[in-house]
Design a protein that fits this description.
- The complex is a heterotrimer of chains A (316), B (271) and C (523).
- Chain B has 271 residues and is an all-alpha fold.
- In chain B, α2 runs antiparallel to α3, α7 packs parallel to α8 and α8 packs antiparallel against α9.
- Chain C has a six-stranded mixed sheet with strand order 6-7-8-3-9-10, with helices on both faces. Chain C has a six-stranded mixed sheet with strand order 18-19-20-13-21-22, with helices on both faces.
- Chain C is globular, with a radius of gyration of 25 Å.
- The two termini of chain C are 33 Å apart.
- The chains are: A mainly alpha (316), B mainly alpha (271), C alpha/beta (523).
- The interface between A and B is large, with 42 and 38 residues.
Chain lengths: 316, 271, 523
């Protein structure tokens, strides 16, 4: 049952990836401007332009180029940067080790804050504790994360000098130093997301509390707290998982902006540099990579659903 | 009316009012530079202080409200205009291929990290308010399609819809006549949420320079200007930041308040 | 010595009085039934005994369980009592179990909680066997079981620790009649074997008449009458009790009508549903919901269709109404097909109307009555010129006032809404009306009124109708002919009285056998 469900989700993952790559390729194709003339400047000779176009594969048909691009990616070859003439895969590789840990760090922080806050608020429904937590999340949701990042820099880097205001120590400096330089960015990313997650957790729990089986649990002799922990949490996890999956995509994308605030050498910096240099093959590949990450995470969330909810396994 | 609704309504109205008044009056010309008066903290003359060019920040916030509200408003309009009909259509053809195609298409758009695509669109087709609107609006379509379908499906199983079908009404007519009025509450609440998300997205895009271009003022770009000066002039970051927070907070509270006020279950309980 | 003694219990929730001076007792081994219509406070009484009342509840009086007043007990003490000394079974077995836990885990949890001395796994198997689930693995999930099986699991949870008192709140209301009979037998048997007190809460007098030692009748939060079952059935004293019995046993009197040539002809109808694919590339399976069904309804005929949930009667209804295509066979109304060349046939559709079960769901809450009941005019090519007069006539015909046309549906009670639904069906003067479980959601007294109304209208309008119900007693009084449906097929059909008095098909016999009957009362 579980295997069949997983295979079905895997198939839909592959279809999503195929369509996504097609969309990204098309968007880049219709982008105005010729990369070759952009690279060589407006005074370039026609024959040098033609030579460069051949080198970049721009003289092939669109279908050939699309297939070459996708085929390359499958083998880990993302093409060659128009701007730096280096393999895109290498450029991405280094940056990925900043962006991915940052998103994961933020996801962990967000979960660690949101779960207890949401459970606490749900268990104190309507009381002062609930109102306090909900008020805080209301503000948390409204804060733009890049502004919050600036405030963190102002307080913890400029005034208190606990952290550096930006830059990345690098993993060679040791895991602690690297994590330290990711801490402020991760907090800036995590707090607004934690506010959303805590609200979802609370409302999911409150929905479950109204279910008939919670009354059955109480009639068994479980206390409110026991019933919540043993029967409420797992059922409430279903909507929470959906949001967790979405959050990873927000965090990856949000990281692009946060990297600007903290001058972190991640995928976000790469994408902005490439856009201004019209290095479209890099833009194309980074976007595809991010989409790939999001689709894979959604696949993982689908599998997690099935682990939580036996009804899903049966439905396939 | 609940306190949430009043507070949310008041905060939202405040921002709309600021945007409207800015068409006829601002304390100063928001573009007028006055270098000698630069980086003033809030005072009696410049209520919100001045920026690094000595421009009056209160005036800039007022005019910036226009940009934020206009971008978010049109983006929500795109989402409702396309998403709601798609959602209604999918629900009317539940389980059929139309439903399948629409919902898979939705999933696909959800799979794209929205901000990345917005950056891609604005980067390729040029930075500016129009492209920002399109980039934000596209991601509102699946949201409204999903909410509409989700609200419509249980209604299709209700007996009053069956009765309408027995009365010979077709799916299009039933969708408009019976389904839409009964999910209007849901859509209004979702619209306020998407409106606030639109304001946040517009701010983020202008912050990285891909939103409204100078001289059109925007809150996000004010924050970008503030970044390098945050240690010597924190008010430059605080003022637009608070403007965004207050607007988004107001809209979210308004949404929550409306949901409670419009929830028919609660209304029945009160009646 | 009573096991449970409720003394002058009053309850208010957020200031609204719910119960007034309720007193009742249950002795060990005794079956006590609390009955009454919706809103009588019978379920709240049960929750008060369990001390599981909603927030904002205030009680006065006492609930002595085993000489301990539970209204004064601490929450910790109640947790020790619930599930251990008092078990409870609820109405809705489909939702009463945690969907993400195995049934074994849910039964075993009670044992672990209260009886750490027992091996939970062994005990779980024993208890599941006792409630008649011997062949069912404890590792199954609730969604893999039928409604009746799930209710057995809920009962297993309630009796796992051998409680002294079992409270069952409408335990069979959501179940089919044959399953209902089995669950009732099980409850009574368990109570007898263990010497448990059983407090049964139900709206159905016929259910309790056969099993309870004593009956407590409630109305508007107060006990109006209580007594030993035989005595109470023989000579009810309180006017409300008398009215309740009268309504439960009520049979509408149909005026005589002569049947003519066939109006509705159903010929070899088959309706298949496509099942979700079980394998990726295998062709999807089908479920045959209606299997080769044929029957006629003559003009002026009043035909009943009975069957349990899932028998295909709702599917057949939708096919007759022309809402869904059929895979084989044909449905003709007045000689014309209801569903022709892939689309419903409007000229045929205007000749039939339907009345649904749910008086709350069958109207768009945002429209006024005048708009709601004229919706069928949409079927006419030109709307009638005398619209207002037609509205007034239809409303008067169902016993409402023409002034009600300006009201919204929420301003009416459940019974009144069902009258509105009938008015909507009558307004275009259809030749056939389909009543789809039209009285199933109503309290007995309201049900009796609606049945009388239908009988009345029969006389006035020469109605032809198909009356679909799971409730045999209702069908008996309101039809001349009856059909019994099982697994998508009509297994028996004939004159209503013949079928009820001498059922031929074994399934019909089981159904009639299982249906609870109210003994003749003295009144």
């Amino acid at each position: 049952m579980m295997l069949r469900y997983a295979l079905k989700r895997l198939l839909s993952l592959l279809i999503s990836l195929a369509i996504a790559s097609l969309v990204i390729f098309t968007v880049i194709e219709v982008a105005p401007g010729d990369p070759a003339s952009f690279m060589l400047g407006i005074n370039a000779q026609e024959d040098t332009l033609a030579a460069l176009r051949t080198e970049l594969g721009l003289d092939q048909t669109k279908v050939q180029r699309y297939l070459a691009w996708v085929g390359g990616m499958v083998q880990g070859d993302f093409g060659t940067s128009y701007q730096y003439r280096t393999p895109v895969a290498e450029m991405i590789g280094d940056r990925l080790w900043v962006s991915l840990p940052l998103a994961l760090y933020a996801l962990i922080l967000s979960t660690l804050i949101a779960f207890p806050a949401g459970i606490y608020a749900a268990s104190r429904r309507g009381k002062a504790g609930d109102i306090g937590v909900m008020g805080a999340t209301q503000i948390g949701v409204a804060i733009p994360n890049f502004w919050f990042a600036m405030m963190l820099v102002l307080v913890f880097a400029i005034n208190l000098r606990w952290f550096s205001a930006g830059g990345f120590a690098g993993w060679d400096e040791g895991i602690f130093a690297a994590l330290k330089s990711l801490t402020l960015p991760a907090i800036a990313l995590a707090l607004p997301q934690a506010a959303i997650l805590a609200r979802v957790m609370r409302s999911a729990l409150l929905d479950v509390l109204g279910e008939d089986f919670m009354r059955t649990a109480r009639a068994k002799g479980l206390s409110r707290g026991q019933a919540l922990r043993r029967h409420g949490l797992r059922n409430a996890m279903i909507p929470v998982l959906t949001i967790l999956g979405l959050q990873f995509s927000f965090l990856l994308a949000g990281g692009i902006i946060i990297e600007q605030v903290f001058y972190l050498p991640g995928l976000g910096r790469l994408i902005f540099q490439s856009i201004s240099a019209r290095d479209l093959i890099v833009v194309e590949s980074v976007t595809m990579l991010l989409v790939f990450a999001v689709i894979v995470v959604n696949f993982a969330v689908d599998l997690a659903y099935a682990a939580v909810d036996p009804r899903l396994r049966a439905r396939t | 009316m609940s306190r949430t609704l009043i507070l949310g309504g008041a905060l939202s109205a405040l921002m709309v009012l600021a945007a409207l008044v800015s068409f006829v009056w601002t304390p100063f010309d928001h573009t007028a530079m006055n270098i000698p008066a630069k980086l003033q903290t809030p005072n009696a003359v410049h209520w919100f202080g001045t920026d690094h060019f000595g421009r009056d920040m209160f005036s800039m916030i007022m005019v910036g409200a226009r940009t934020s509200i206009a971008v978010a408003f049109v983006a929500v309009g795109i989402g409702i205009g396309l998403g709601v009909p798609l959602g209604l259509w999918a629900a009317a053809r539940q389980g059929g291929w139309v439903d399948e195609v629409i919902m898979r298409g939705n999933d696909l758009i959800f799979a794209f990290p929205s901000l990345v695509i917005a950056i891609l669109i604005t980067a390729i087709f040029g930075a500016g308010a129009i492209n920002a609107i399109i980039a934000i609006g596209i991601f509102n379509i699946p949201v409204f399609a999903r909410v509409t379908r989700g609200g419509a499906l249980p209604l299709w199983a209700r007996e009053f819809i069956m009765a309408a079908r027995v009365a010979g009404k077709g799916p299009a007519r039933i969708s408009v006549e019976h389904i839409l009025p009964n999910i209007a509450n849901l859509l209004i609440v979702q619209a306020t949420i998407q409106f606030s998300l639109g304001i946040l997205a517009e701010a983020a895009l202008s912050y990285v320079g891909l939103g409204a271009q100078p001289p059109t003022p925007s809150w996000g770009r004010m924050l970008a200007d503030a970044q390098t000066l945050v240690s010597i002039a924190p008010h430059m970051a605080l003022v637009p930041g608070f403007a965004i927070i207050i607007t988004v907070l107001g809209l979210n509270l308004l949404g929550d308040g409306l949901r409670d006020a419009l929830d028919p279950r609660l209304r029945v309980a009160r009646a | 010595m009573s096991l449970l003694e409720v003394k002058n219990l009053s309850l208010s929730i957020q200031g609204t009085p719910i119960l007034q001076d309720v007193s009742l007792t249950v002795a060990p081994g005794e079956v006590v039934a609390v009955t009454g219509e919706s809103g009588s406070g019978k379920s709240m009484t049960a929750l008060a005994i369990m001390q599981l009342l909603p927030d904002g509840s205030e009680t006065t009086g006492a609930v002595d369980f085993d000489s301990e007043d539970v209204t004064r007990s601490t929450e910790a003490r109640m947790c020790a009592l619930r599930g251990n000394n008092i078990g409870m079974v609820f109405q809705e077995p489909m939702t009463a179990l945690n969907p993400v836990q195995t049934i074994g885990a849910q039964v075993g949890e009670t044992v672990q909680l209260h009886r750490p001395d027992l091996d939970a796994e062994t005990r779980t198997v024993e208890v599941l066997e006792r409630v008649g689930l011997a062949g069912i693995s404890p590792r199954r999930y609730p969604h893999e079981l039928s409604g009746g099986q799930r209710q057995r699991v809920v009962i297993a949870i309630a009796i796992a620790c051998g409680p002294k008192l079992l409270i069952a709140d409408e335990p069979t209301t959501a179940l089919d009649v044959t399953t209902q009979a089995q669950i009732l037998d099980l409850l009574v048997q368990l109570a007898q074997e263990d010497g448990m007190g059983l407090l049964m809460i139900t709206h159905d007098l016929a259910v309790v008449a056969n099993m309870a030692h004593r009956i407590v009748v409630m109305q508007n939060g107060a006990v109006v009458e209580a007594g030993d079952t035989p005595a109470l059935l023989k000579a009810p004293k309180h006017p409300y009790t008398k009215a309740l019995f009268a309504a439960s046993a009520h049979q509408a009197t149909l005026p005589d009508q002569t049947a003519h040539q066939p109006l509705l002809q159903v010929r070899g109808v088959v309706r298949d549903y496509t099942l979700p694919r079980t394998r990726l590339f295998a062709p999807p399976g089908t479920h045959r919901a209606v299997d080769n069904v044929s029957f006629d309804i003559p003009r002026g005929g009043r035909v009943g269709l009975v069957g349990e949930s899932g028998c295909g009667k709702s599917t057949l209804t939708r096919a007759i109404l022309g809402l869904e295509p059929v895979q084989a066979g044909e449905i003709l109304l007045d000689g014309q097909p209801v569903f022709a060349s892939g689309a419903p046939n409007l000229s045929v559709r205007r000749k039939m109307q339907v009345v649904f079960q749910d008086p709350y769901g069958s109207f768009n809450p945002r429209h006024r009555v005048s708009r709601l009941i004229t919706e069928p005019f949409h079927l006419l090519e030109t709307p009638p010129a005398d619209r207002a007069a037609r509205i007034a006539e239809a409303l008067s015909a169902v016993g409402l006032s023409p002034d009600d046309a300006h009201k919204y549906p929420h301003q009416f009670s459940g019974g009144q809404r069902q009258r509105l639904a009938i008015a909507r069906a009558l307004i275009i003067r259809p030749e056939l009306i389909v009543f789809d479980e039209a009285v199933s959601a109503l309290d007995v007294s309201v049900r009796a009124q609606i049945l009388d109304l239908i009988a009345d209208l029969c006389g006035q309008y020469d109605l032809t109708y198909l009356f679909i119900s799971h409730d045999l007693s209702v069908v008996r009084g309101i039809t001349d002919q009856v059909m019994v449906m099982q697994h998508g097929m009509i297994v028996e059909q004939g004159d209503t009285n013949d079928v009820f008095d001498a059922p031929k098909h074994p399934y019909t016999q089981t159904l009639i056998e299982a249906a609870p009957k109210l003994p003749r009362t003295g009144s």
